[in-house]
Amino acid sequence: MPPTLMHLKVLLPFQIFAEKAGVLRIVAETHEGSFGLLPHRLDCVAAIVPGILIYETESDGEALVAVDEGVMVKTGLDVLISVRRAVSGTDLGQLQDLVEKEFLTLDEREQSVRTVMAKLESGLLRRFATLKHE
Question: Strands, DSSP E only, in 13-94?
Answer without folding.
Answer: 15-30, 33-37, 44-48, 51-57, 61-67, 70-75, 78-83, 86-89
